[in-house]
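Q: What residues go here?
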């Protein structure tokens, strides 16, 4: 299907037919990315979709992906040998 770019202020936009929007399941928020010299539009899932599953998968691995835990009341140095107590929260 051919379409035209339309002016929207200083930007340009593409009008998508209602049938395509419904067929793909697009909502007000979409994701845009460039792939092989093409602009790809996909439905925007819920924020952080898939993060919980990714964290579960990483939880079983010990490849040094996370820094070691530091107790909140520990003293830190500023690199010059001076001890600095972290600010109270």
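A:
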């Amino acid at each position: 299907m051919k379409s035209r770019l339309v002016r929207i202020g200083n930007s340009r936009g593409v009008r998508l037919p209602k049938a395509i929007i419904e067929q793909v399941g697009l909502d007000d928020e979409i994701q845009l990315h460039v792939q092989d010299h093409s602009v790809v539009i996909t439905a925007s899932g819920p924020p952080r979709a898939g993060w919980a599953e990714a964290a579960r998968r990483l939880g079983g691995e010990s490849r040094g992906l996370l820094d070691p835990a530091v107790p909140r009341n520990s003293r830190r140095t500023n690199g010059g040998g001076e001890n600095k107590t972290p600010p109270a929260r």
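A: Context that may help when evaluating the design: The radius of gyration is 24 Å. Helices lie at 18-24, 51-59.
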